[in-house]
């Protein structure tokens, strides 16, 4: 089992993702209500950007605070996590 990793940025990240979650629920409602596809696509793009930005914050925070630098484990982990950028 891996140890829990709690960073100072996590509460803000959680808040950001919860806003994106609410936004996504709104997009689902737009589709159910028959809103125009262009409006739905625009809102989906906004949700996608919000999640992408949250992911970037998480990854950069991990790189800044969890990776020490030169050990083989850190380099492997950096390679692994950088795939998600």
Tell me about this structure.
With 85 residues, the chain is mainly alpha-helical. The protein has one domain: Metal-sensitive repressor, helix protomer (Methane Monooxygenase Hydroxylase, Chain G, domain 1, Up-down Bundle). The protein has three helices and no strands. Helix 1 packs antiparallel against helix 2. The longest helix has 30 residues. The model has no long low-confidence stretch (mean pLDDT 89).
Give the % helix. over 70%
Number of strands: 0
Radius of gyration: 17 Å
**CATH homologous superfamily (4th level) name:** Metal-sensitive repressor, helix protomer
Structurally, the number of domains stands at 1
What series of H and E elements makes up the topology? HHH
End-to-end separation in angstroms reads 25 Å
Mean pLDDT: 89
CATH class: Mainly Alpha
Features:
85 residues, mainly alpha, Methane Monooxygenase Hydroxylase, Chain G, domain 1, 3 helices, 75% helix
Short structural description:
With 85 residues, this protein is mostly helical.
Draw up the topology in text.
Layout: H1 10-32, H2 37-66, H3 72-82
